[in-house]
Specification:
279 residues; alpha/beta; seven-stranded mixed sheet; three-stranded antiparallel sheet; 10 helices; 46% helix; 20% strand; globular; binds S-adenosylmethionine
């Protein structure tokens, strides 16, 4: 069962890869401050080897590349090979010579004990079917005294940027494929205490957790719709199986439901992420 769910998740993320490549600039504009927090708190130093887990298109790892310099290395990874392809193309476009891209499942890493100086992971752990295994793997491959820095989404009440779409789908009778609160769901690690406990259980002794605002600003409803249906994995999966009429109805209803978030320059949908570093 868990293996089926994992395979399904990997297939979804492979399908999402092209959308993530297309929306890279918007995504980076909106979320760069989270990446900066991670790179600062992983405490990357010249010569270090830093692992970016569940790295998707790779931007978080690329930000760390300048810090480790030509003597250091970024291991840019994801379990979806199409995502790794996106990262590989981008690393080459940016001329980054200290980035190695590879397919890697965070829950069973093909890496030696004590082999990396830092690990970053943005919006990956809560999507994993067994995040406890992934945290234990992090502890195993991370050198003593060095840091894991991560970010996971806070609970639904703090993230209208995604729940407005999710609730609109439910309103129209379209159920999400996965329980958003269960293992692998977007809200499976929804508060600082859960994150702290999971890190401590995996053997991390020193843990700091804080929340950070991530507001999603769209110029228009069309931009919001394109983003949600091309990039948000769980939502895009439901929309792709709807008929033309159902999709049109969802689009119209969502536009009405997003009206509450209108501003002078478009739409602003609030969000909150939970950042943590641990050693
Ligand atoms: C929401 S995206 C985040 C991508 C990137 N970290 C970012 O912040 O832009 C989640 C990524 O986690 C990856 N992922 C999910 N489960 C994974 C696992 N067990 N091992 C490695 N990658 C995984 C997916 O393939 C996807 O690319």
């Amino acid at each position: 069962m868990v293996d089926d769910a994992r395979a399904k998740s990997r297939a979804t993320w492979n399908e999402m890869a092209a959308g993530w490549e297309r929306k890279r600039d918007f995504m980076w504009r909106t979320t760069r401050h989270v990446a900066e927090w991670l790179v600062e708190h992983v405490d990357a130093r010249p010569g270090d080897t830093i692992l970016d887990l569940a790295g998707g298109p790779g931007e978080n790892g690329f930000l760390a590349a300048a810090r480790v310099g030509s003597q250091g290395k970024i291991i840019e990874t994801d379990f979806a090979d199409e995502m790794v392809g996106v990262a590989r193309r981008r690393a080459s476009e940016l001329g980054l010579e200290n980035v190695e891209t590879r397919v890697l499942d965070a829950e069973r890493m093909d890496l030696a004990d004590d082999s990396v100086d830092g690990i970053i992971c943005r919006w990956g752990f809560m999507l994993m079917l067994d995040p406890g295994a992934a945290f234990r793997e992090c502890r195993r491959v991370l050198k003593d005294g060095r840091r894991l820095a991560l970010s996971v989404w806070a609970g639904p009440e703090k993230n209208p940027w995604v729940t407005v779409t999710g609730m609109t789908m439910v309103q129209l009778g379209h159920q999400p494929g996965r329980d958003p609160f269960g293992p692998g769901g977007m809200f499976s690690m929804p508060d600082p205490e859960t994150v702290r406990t999971m890190l401590t259980d995996a053997g991390f002794a020193d843990v700091t957790v804080e929340e950070m605002v991530v507001d999603w600003r769209y110029e228009s409803f069309d931009e919001a719709w394109d983003f949600m249906t091309e990039v948000a994995g769980a939502i895009a999966q439901v929309v792709k199986d709807l008929s033309r009429d159902e999709t049109e109805k969802l689009r119209r209803t969502l536009e009405e439901n997003m009206d509450a978030f209108k501003t002078d320059s478009g739409l602003t949908l609030p969000g909150v992420t939970i950042n943590a570093w641990a050693s």
